[in-house]
Amino acid sequence: MNYKYRLITGVFSIIIGILLIGASILFTAATLTLIGILFLVVSLVYTLFVYSIEIFIKDKELDIEELKKQGLTVVICENCRRNNVIEDIYCIYCGERLEIIENNKYDSW
Ligand SMILES: [Zn+2]
Q1: pLDDT: which is higher, 5 or 45
Q2: 19: CA distance to ligand 1 center in Å?
């Protein structure tokens, strides 16, 4: 499941929750109101959770183009194979010491 699909599911659940509350008012059913409120709260928390996780992941990924513009050297960690900046000295993901190896540079592939 990707981010968009999860977000749509969350929003859809919120709509169902609102509809349940609306229906319960129409039929004056207290149990249905409780279910509707519960549904609404759960789906709201879920949607917010999905949304904040997405922002957190985006925040963690390095913007290669931006780093290059700043004159930093992008290298790949020998240990976990993720992009890093040599100026950081240590890998920001696994803590392995970063080294410049000619064919290890981001530019070469
Ligand atoms: Zn690493």
Answers
A1: 45
A2: 48
Q: What do you get for the CA distance between the two ends of the chain, in Å?
A: 30
Radius of gyration from C-alpha coordinates of the chain: 23
Identity at 57, one-letter amino acid code: I
How does pLDDT run across 22-73, given as a tens digit for each residue? 888 888 888 888 888 888 999 999 989 988 887 777 666 677 788 888 888 8
Ion ligand 1: residues, CB within 5 A, are 77, 79-80, 91, 93-94, 96
Predicted TM-score (pTM) of the model is 0.48
From the CA of 80, how far away is ligand 1's center (Å)?
4
Tokens of 43: 């789906």
Closest CA to 15 of 42, 40, 51: 40
What's the burial of 91, exposed, middle or buried (CB within 10 Å: 0-12/13-18/19+)? buried
- State the distance from the centre of ligand 1 to the C-alpha of 76, rounded, in angstroms: 8
